[in-house]
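Aim 2, interim progress. The first record below pairs a target sequence with its structure tokens.
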Amino acid sequence: MRFVLRTLGIWLLLLAMVAAVVDATKSLAGGGAWAVTPLGEQWRQLFPEMLDGFRQWVIGTVGEWLWDPILLSVLAAPTWVVFGILGVFLYWLGQKRKEVEVFIN
């Protein structure tokens, strides 16, 4: 299980790096103005019907309270930030823990 978590973490970190390069390229092509692509916009460009289906599923399964304040904030964040945080978190969960030696006299 740790191997799967580490692998997913690495893949998400790679996706974060790709998204950061895309944003940096847009920034350089736009004359140096910092361009940031939110996750929701990028998702809508790649899979428009999937985002609407995900919204309906969340509202129908969990409720409106999860979609409006929480998931809309995540979708408004830059893509590389969201994937980077998830990647670091999954990689951290998949790490082998150090054994602690306890000496009792």
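The second target in this work package is listed in the same format:
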Amino acid sequence: MASPIDNTVIESDTDARRPDTTLAMIVYALLLGVFVTGITPVIGVIIAYVYRGNGPRWLDEHYRYHIRTFWIGLLYACISWVLAFVLIGFVLMALQAVWLIVRCVIGFKALQERRAPDKVDSWLW
């Protein structure tokens, strides 16, 4: 009788210790989803609040970066909407869109390099 085939995958020690960055990537995508649906950043910030503190320090900094991006972006959006009555708000809305895209790209790039984003406490980038 033939022996059964063993399909067990053995992970190396380095692979077993690597944290899963999928949720952090999804949160960046949800933050950028504001341009499509408008509600996805709320889902993203909830995920960030739930999962912060569960991984290594550099990954927790990404969740902190997500949370700060959400709240700072919301503040900038409110200011832009108020100033839209004076017509300068429309320019600020365009600048806010650029700010959000750049901030998410910087964070995503740092996530791919498995390091914390630079200047997490910054209000700009």
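The radius of gyration is 19 Å. This observation will shape the mutagenesis plan for the next reporting period.
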